[in-house]
Amino acid sequence: MSSLNHLRIITQKELRILVPYTPQHIRRLEKAGKFPLRLRIGLNRVGWRLIDIETWIEARRPAHVYAAGVSPLTHLISTAV
Asked: What domain range includes position 64?
């Protein structure tokens, strides 16, 4: 894994692959403080830090999912691009 992975920003399209919620639901979760906040990366473009999304997902999955020590998110992101 790259040492710069913590800096990677994912787009709304990539986020939708990892978190299959509607944009409206994600916005509600953000406002409630229950989802990582988006970053403005352009005039009409937003993104999320991959590390924040991975942490959010991992906090909601049972521990046995990560027993092998490899996050399934790594595969999803690499195949989505």
From this structure: 5-80
